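User: I need a structural model of Phosphate transporter from Phaseolus vulgaris for a docking pre-check later this week. Nothing fancy, just the predicted structure tokens so I can convert them on my end. Input:
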Amino acid sequence: MAGQLGVLNALDVAKTQWYHFTAIVIAGMGFFTDAYDLFCISLVTKLLGRLYYTEPGAPKPGSLPPRVQASVTGVALCGTLAGQLFFGWLGDKLGRKRVYGLTLVLMVVCSLASGFSFGSTPKGVLTTLCFFRFWLGFGIGGDYPLSATIMSEYANKKTRGAFIAAVFAMQGFGILAGGVVALIVAYAYDQKYKLPTYEQDPQGSIVPSFDYVWRIVLMFGALPAAITYYWRMKMPETARYTALVAKDAKQAASDMSKVLQVELEAEVEKVKKLAEEESHRYGLFSKEFLRRHGLHLVGTTTTWFLLDKAFYSQNLFQKDIFSAIGWIPPAQEMNAIHEVYKIARAQTLIALCSTVPGYWFTVFLIDHMGRFAIQLMGFFFMTVFMFALAIPYDHWTKKANRIGFVVIYSLTFFFANSGPNSTTLVVPAEIFPARLRSTCHGISAAAGKAGAIVGAFGFLYAAQSKDPSKTDAGYSTGIGIKNSLIMLGVINLFGMVFTLLVPESKGKSLEELSGENDGSEDPKPATTVPV
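Assistant: Understood. Predicted structure tokens for Phosphate transporter:
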């Protein structure tokens, strides 16, 4: 195929227009919902333990047994991994738009169903909850490759990185919203029920109606997804899929003429020539793909795996780290609703001061600094600050130094979100051919969720105290918070190393990066930035 299709060039050089912002909001609300649903569970696991596992006369309120805690926390991540692989593949086979609505329906239905988890025993309720959260994760998983690919294929090449990063930045608002919703619900219940602490009155520190608290928090995640469903279904298929994969030049030109509000020629002959060359195209499992994109796929999968292993460990177990340093009081010194409130307040503060600003730092700078530089910088500072927390850990546990711990801990979130947590999503949506783009993004994202699962399950056990008398009920001894933080620092260090395999895609068209500008698909390949 000689040169780029006119409709694709028009998208690449288009000035920033209203449809760009519309696409950011429509795709971004998926990530808002994703983050809300994945992270809100950490706000209510302590409450679930009190409700269903408190033993009469015990000196401390109940907590979820290790396997139950791991299942409740990690099952949605397992579903997400499966959904990323399945919907990523399906997005290349059926089209981005046709699959896009299905993921949203799954998220809405399963968010609501999670709140209606039923059973006559604690085991029954939590088994039902895990079932619905797996399928919730499955829908969330599909949103990763589809939203990133759609935004990538709609954007112009000058600000493409910022637009994809802005879609992902909605995840920060989702995490923040989870904390705010939990704060509001906890405050409302606290005003209605003035209860003593567990130490003062174990039975009186919780009432049966608190069972509604966690259900309301989980169900709220359905609202933003439901609101955007109509507009998501109104979006036309991306021109890159229609022209390069479906080979429908007229439809691509017609759709983008409406979007860009200009007249575009349907280059039927060019697309026919492209279709004739289809037999020479390489597949995902071919030696040719390995030669052209093998190292790129290794780079995107390994860096996302390492990032999520550290990021999800930090995010899902903030409450345990804050409890360990004394920022959240011991469970017996609070009633059930105060515990929810204090955990939500701590996580909301972290999100507001570091998580959300970090995402938007990337949005504003990614097309100036480039993906490679921002990712390397993020991993570097995550490593530095994690070691700064871990090595003098005993210093940070003293009451006078707790604020310093929280500040440095917040900086690790800032640099995660202003670096690899954004770029690991952006780059796979840019560097692979259109017919494999969604699939390769799904593979990269699934590798990330594999890291998140390892982090979520592993940190739960590893962070237990080395002193048997200080471990949580049902857990064996671990390596302690200090050594766990050192381990996370080492993981971030490896993230820096594997970033060297990730190509720089700033300022290039998608076809230039993937090689779809000519019939051989072999322009100058996207090369790794020299260091």
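Before docking, keep this in mind: Residues 519-531 have pLDDT under 50 and may be disordered.
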